[in-house]
Amino acid sequence: MEERRPDPDLLLRQVQAEEERRHQGKLKIFFGAAPGVGKTYAMLAAAQQKLIEGVDVLAGLVETHGRAETAALLSDITILERRNIDYKGATLKEFDLDEALKRKPSIILVDELAHTNAPGSRHNKRWQDVLELLDAGINVYTTLNVQHIESLNDIVAQITGVTVRETLPDSVLERADEMELIDLPPDDLLQRMQEGKVYVPDLAARARKNFFRKGNLLALRELALRRTAECVDAQMQDYRRNKGVHDVWPAAERILVCVGPSPFAVRLIRAAKRMADGLHAEWIAVNVEAPSTVRPSEKDIRKLADNMRLAESLGAETVVLSGHKASNEILNYARSRNVTKIIIGKPTHPRWKDLIFGSMLDDIVRGSGDIEVYVISGDVAVPASAIQTRTAVKKTAPREWLISILGVAAGTGLAFIMDYYLTLVDVAMTYILFVVLIASWTDKRPALLASFLSVAAFDFFFIPPFYTFAVTDIKYLVTFAVMFVVAFITSSLTLRIREHADAARRRERRTAALYRLSGELVHERGIKRLGEIAVKHISEAFSRDTVILVPDENSALSILTAKPENLELDERELSVASWAFDHKQHAGRNTDTLPGAGGLYLPMVASSRTVGIIGIILKDSAFFDQEQIHAIENFAHQIAMAIERALMGEEAQKALLKAETESLRNTLLSSLSHDLRTPLAAITGASTTLLQPDALLDAGGKRELVQTIIEESEHLNRIIRNVLDMTRIESGAITVKKEWLHMEEIVGAVLNRLAEKLRGHSVTVNMPADLPLVSFDPLLIEQVLMNLLENAVKYTSASASFEIASSINKDSVLVEVSDSGPGIKPGDEERIFDKFFRSSTGAGGIGLGLTICKAIITAHGGRIWAGNRPEGGASFRFTLPLEEVPPAVDSEVTV
Amino acid sequence: MSDKSARILLIDDEPQMRRFLRVTLQSQGYELVEAENGHEGLTDAATRNPDVILLDLGLPDMDGLDVLAGIREWSGVPVIIISAREQERDKITALDSGADDYLTKPFSAGELLARIRVALRHRVIQQGGPAEPLFVLDNLKVDLEKRQVFISDSEVHLTPIEYKLLSYLIRNAGKVVTHRQLLKEIWGPAYASQMHYVRVYMGMLRHKLEEDPACPKFFINEPGVGYRLRCKMDNQPD
Fold it and tell me: Alpha helices, DSSP H only, in chain B?
């Protein structure tokens, strides 16, 4: 029999999630059906138990509501001071998140999970504070009533008639590691209520009375029990999945819910969420932006954005479609995503509209094929104002009215000419033509006016009796009606096409911007440059000030690029950005975290890390709709990938460099071990010989041994000096400290220092007496000359002669060190400056001397090269630039 | 001179250096006091009354420059700095803030002894000993009383500044004198950073007094530090 094995991918995901969770705190929710069941009491009792076990428990925020037995439980738990928040003159006391994070207790008690924080707090909602605590690895005990759960919100409202404003996303509930139901039978609760032991702050007296009816309490209790059961069920599923129990997932279901701007859509969303949970299905919230509808008002856009955000917060994928016919778009999309169930709202408009314009619901039901369609009832209590706002049209410019009137006037002029030559029908057609033309220029209402005016003008000028609105023949009334309807419909169609085109153009512009962005990003490497491209495109596409922040080694964010370039972020904005970066979540304007900020901050999350933050600064009350945010997210994603690629490139470069350094170091080490050992062997040998008690050494022999020791020590010293110099040059520790001085001085110093070594060689110095002061670093150039001369001694015979010459060119001073030795092997002229290059002549040295010379001369802005003299022998030349005129020296006054 | 009975304080933390110096100096008849660190060194400098102090810049407990400053607060005793090559800039700071001379590791016994002799001689002059009115070095002869300079017995005319420069170097013969010291002494403190003045005038002196200015015998250039006028004591056998 085949063994049922757990799905490896699933397991991996689970392991990752667990790994992540291991570093996170555990969330325990004390869950109740109604206020007063004793959640806080239960939480404190549990905390007491932990306290006895020696766990560090901190009461972050506990509401005792003046109940003595609850307060008694709190007495020996450390209580966190609340933070004062000044809000409109009043001082509100709120949970101090920062202090709690700083204290980092093992367990923290935070009452009322669904609480809304005072404006000015970091997060809008307390549950966000709790999530942050969990992320910081702190275990949280909290309390929650069933009516606060987002997906149950409207059911609760239906049952109790009270709409609860403070809601908690279901995702937070799903995040809970433990859920403890605090159950109290309704009768007992009512009893407590009568004893005044229940505190319900946010309900008026009457509402409270309504709320605490036995029927309500029973229903709420059932809800709470069911929700707890679901939670247990979910844990069971997890468990079974872990154990490889097969077929926990029913056949894959995918639910699509159609969302509009109406408040009623909220119900659809929650229904979809509940259904998706029940079926363990993915779900998609779809909005169709159909140009056929009235242009949505600002308010509608905002409402739609809210609805979509709600869907997203409940775990939906949100999608905005655009098309002429909503039903087709929805069905096509549903098919493309293998959706099995569509949830749609019951129509709220009158039936006749469906007869004229067609019914979207009907179309979907007919076209759905094997997709099930669920029609959910609309809420009767949709406020009238909400419906009105749907028809709100943007304000029409006076110019458009003018176009409408003038257009009809022009049409009338043309109609007079037509009337002279042609029939009355052609006149009517002329008017219709003009209405269409007007509609293609103006908005809906001027187009309607044009339709009306043209019918009126037609009647006035061309229908007998002329120049009155009176009509003798009744059949003309039919003509007017037909003419008006035709004019109106054609003008609506024209408008519709135009708006569709507009919408398409907007989308097109964004897509094109995104395309251009990715196109440009591909060709760039440097992070700074990528940032510049990014801010340019984002600020163009969204017409806002844009900033990109990246972390430094210590993960502190700083501005990489901004547009306008002088854009600065104050402390507050930076902290919002940092929050977004640390938590990989949106923050700032338009979000639930620090919405008081001036900007919206999106993390740029690449595959391996968060590479930075995009900040978009909004003007006063501006906001983004969901689609725009998605578009920004797309931008962020593109940029994140580009920056990640650049970072990886840099890292690869560093790794390569490291590998090269590594190999160089190995060369150096092998070279050093040989070069250091040879002189050491000589020194050890010579000195031990000297120590031999019975050595037959004469004075000359002794002296020779001592001389060996001295020479080899010097040799060692030189090797070490070169290695140190090279290291310092490569690590950038050497800085050129230029001074004005005579080359002669340095040559003199070197000859003096090398006097011992140069004994036996003839050294000619060829320097014009009028050589001006040159600006260079005396120590470094002395080093160069010393290395060159030492090399000359090393590679030539004991009697070779050397020459040091210097001359002035127009913008540099040239120094030449040459010898009468065998010269440089042809082909080696360049390579001898390479690190660790050693001439095949086999003289000692580790091949760093000339490399150091080159580094020093290059740092001075000069050039060094080698060659052979025509008369034989090697010649090394270098130049030093004469950048400035040497400073003047005051002529001497008599002292 | 009472050279050989001089007491030398050595402040160095490295045992092998101390061992080498102990053998070398004691073989030359000097009395040696050893200090392993800066604090011990400061105490010894105050209590043991040394004639010369050898001070290593790289000490474990405190900065060699601070030790120097501590000594200079109350004493003018000659201090010779012993430095490694990486402490190039520290060396100049030390010289400018009162050290008398320096030695760069590794150095030979000959160099060390020459520096000590120069330091001791300056100590004698400092304590009111006789300053010689006539300075002679090879074929260079300077009559400090008559302000006359001779090369191989023929008089060389120097400008006033050149003469001032020469006489200052003679007064510090054998010791290194930093560019800054020369500038302050000859031109005044306002010129302390006008390094090129020294360079130009030293060039003139070299051309007037040296046989081969590019390979000077009297005026030894210590690149990056300053100048040293060679003196007879340098010629002692290595």
Answer: 15-27, 38-47, 64-72, 88-96, 109-126, 160-171, 179-182, 195-209
Residues on A contacting B at a C-beta cutoff of 8 Å: 710, 713, 717, 721, 724, 739-742, 744-749, 751-752, 763, 765, 767, 769, 773, 778-779, 782, 804, 886-887, 889, 892, 894-895
Task: Give all strands (DSSP E) within A37-127, no chain letters.
Answer: 57-61, 78-79, 83-87, 90-94, 107-110
State the count of interchain CB pairs (< 8 A) between A and B.
78
The letter for the amino acid at A301 is I
Phi, psi of A658 (to 5 degrees): -65, -45
Q: How far is A854 from chain B (nearest CA, A)?
A: 20
**Do B40 and B93 have their domain in common?**
yes
Question: Using an 8 Å Cβ cutoff, are B23 and B48 in contact?
Answer: no
Sign of CA dihedral A661, A664, A666, A671: negative
**Residue A343 identity (one-letter amino acid):** I
Residue type, A530: L
Q: Which H or E run contains A561?
A: strand A557-563
Going residue by residue through chain B, which has 238 residues, state the pLDDT in tens, using 9 for 90 and above: 444 578 999 999 888 889 989 998 999 889 999 999 999 999 999 999 999 999 998 888 888 889 999 999 988 899 999 987 666 778 888 898 889 999 888 888 888 999 999 999 888 877 776 667 888 888 899 998 888 999 998 999 999 999 999 999 998 888 899 998 999 988 888 888 888 889 889 999 999 999 888 888 899 988 888 999 988 765 544 3
Asked whether A42 and A180 are in contact (CB, 8 A), the reply is yes
Q: Which helix (H) or strand (E) holds B178?
A: strand B176-178
Query: pTM of the prediction?
Result: 0.47
Question: What is each CA distance from A390 to A299, A350, A387, A447, in whole angstroms?
Answer: 9, 15, 5, 20
Structure tokens at A4: 């049922």
B220 vs chain A: nearest CA distance in angstroms? 7
Q: Which of B75, B102, B126 represents a domain boundary (last residue)?
A: B126
Contacts of A707 (CB under 8 A, 6+ apart): none
Tokens 């006091």 sit on residue = B33
Which of A751, A778, A887 has the CB atom closest to B224's CB atom? A778
Q: In the block, which residue shows the tokens 């006028």? A: B229
Give CA A117 to chain center in angstroms.
26
Q: Are A605 and A581 in contact (CB under 8 A)?
A: no
The residue of chain A with its CA nearest to that of B206 is A745
Residues B62 and B168 occupy one common structural domain:
no
Which residues in B have their CB inside 8 Å of a CB on A?
85-86, 88, 106, 108, 159-161, 164, 194-197, 199-203, 206-207, 212-216, 220-224
CATH number for the domain that contains residue B152: 1.10.10.10
Taking the C-alpha atoms of residue B70 and residue B102, their distance in angstroms, rounded to an integer, is: 18
From CA B82, how far away is CA B62, in angstroms rounded?
15
Residue A275: CB atoms within 10 Å: 18
**Residue in chain A lying closest to B217 (CA):** A752
Distance, in Å, from the CA atom of A562 to the CA atom of A36, rounded to the nearest integer, reads 53
Spatial neighbors of B139 by CB under 8 A, at least 6 apart, are B151, B152, B153
d(CA A499, CA A321): 15
Answer whether A44's CB lies under 8 Å from A107's CB: no
Q: How many residues does chain B have?
A: 238
Structural domain boundaries enclosing B146? 134-235
Q: What ipTM did this prediction achieve?
A: 0.85
Which domains, and CATH codes, for chain A? 8-242 (3.40.50.300), 254-391 (3.40.50.620), 398-501 (no CATH), 524-730 (3.30.450.40), 735-881 (3.30.565.10)
Q: How many domains does chain B have?
A: 2
Q: Which residue has the tokens 């970066």?
A: A581
Domain containing B73 — which CATH number? 3.40.50.2300
